[in-house]
What does this fold into?
Amino acid sequence: MDKIEKHIEWLFKPYKKNKQIQELKEEVYSNLLARKEDLLLEGYSEEEAVKNTIAHIDSVDHLIEENKKVDINRFLASLLQSMTLYSVIIWILTLPLSLFPEHLLLSYFFMILSILLSIVYIVYLRKVNNGDIKIKYMNIKRTRELKNIAWKIWVVFIIISLLSVTGIYFASNLWFSRPISISGPYQFAEIALRYLTPFVTVIIPLTVNKARNLIEESEVEVYE
Amino acid sequence: MSESINKDYIRGHIDTIILRILIDQDNYGYEVIKAIKILSNGQYELKEPSLYTSLKRLEKGAYIESYWGDETQGGRRKYYKVTDNGKKYYKKAIAEWKIAREIIDQLVEGER
It folds into this structure.
């Protein structure tokens, strides 16, 4: 493989090998080669010609259909805003847990998380307001896959947690076919909480979901 | 050269320039860049990333079509060809440019 081919391989490394990419690769390659030949005719040495040729294209990110040009600071600010909101809502929902010392930690966790998220949010908001623009390419196809995976993992996690809670509380009753006994409202609430607390992790797929939608919304228009 | 072309003035016309070159004859990417360089007497060189962006946009708008050359050595070349749509677009762009040029001339240094 010559140096130009290596450069092309490097440019296209992050992308899947589909027909569109393969054709783009061939087109870029043949154009670079034509430039090199031209430089050789102008009297450049082989090495100089290759160096000069390669310098003419240092990225193909903007040519990939699935890539969205996103202002990273604005994107993170919006994402952090939503994350803060999710966290605060979950924190409020966990407030009644103060009655159950065992679960209190969870409530504190979301309180602290909310505070931290809002601080980072403010940092990014200030960056955006100062006109600090940082452009990055994001692959929407890949984020869509990530979103689907996040939801799937979460659903599996919820099913496993619910099953294991059921196991802990009721398996022996079922096994020995003893009647289920709940001694009072407090104990009932505690069991109910065991079932409900795994759901706070919904913040993770929600965040991924939001991130994906934001990429579509915060695309920057460019004219090159 | 002390007074070289301000690239911002050209940027909005790259599509038209490329169409003009392809109307003369079908061509592939590097030859388009070269033709632009020659047409401008070496004063303007279109950058490769801008070339691809523009070609992609023109192809999406069905102003140009592409086909592969039959080179056996050194990679196949992708040639571009203007469509009827592209020719219409080109004529419209030229008419618009002439109007704009006149008005801008009048605005920046015309008689009061």
